[in-house]
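Allow me, if you will, to draw on your knowledge of protein folds for a short while. I have a record of one protein: its chain in single-letter code and its fold written as discrete structure tokens. Could you please explain, in whatever detail you think fit, how the structure tokens follow from the sequence? The record follows directly beneath this note:
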Amino acid sequence: MTDPGPETILAALRVRSGARAGAKLPVRRPVVSVGAVPGNDIVLDSPGVAPRHARLRVSGGVWTIAPLEPAGDLDVDGEAIREESLLAPGSALRIGDVSLVFDPAEAWYDPAPERSTDERSIPLFLPPHQRPFWPTALFVLGVIGVIVVLFFLFRTA
């Protein structure tokens, strides 16, 4: 799937209780933060919601939620969450004093994996114009060496 535009909704959080009950909060990016202060992708201005309470993330079509502040209450389907947890369609969430239902979209977008600058590709899998010469040269020399050794081992006198 191509890069989602600003109008693409990857998932939604339906608010079941709290000041915004009945609202449908769209999730428009693969990673979003949820909290009580502006600057979060989803703002829940309610008692018990920490400034940066939780992070929603999709990777390979699998949605997860993780607490960002240890003091914040975060439940998924009635279980307290202390580390990253899987979300299923229709999962009941409680973030602080707010109850929500998680609704993923039918299609999902997964960004390209981030690569660190020190991570290196195997040279033989690079396109020919970017491939260094030395691995090919070592391979050819190795094959010639094996042929020479086999020649001297099996030659007849």
Q: What stands out?
A: The chain has one helix and eleven strands.
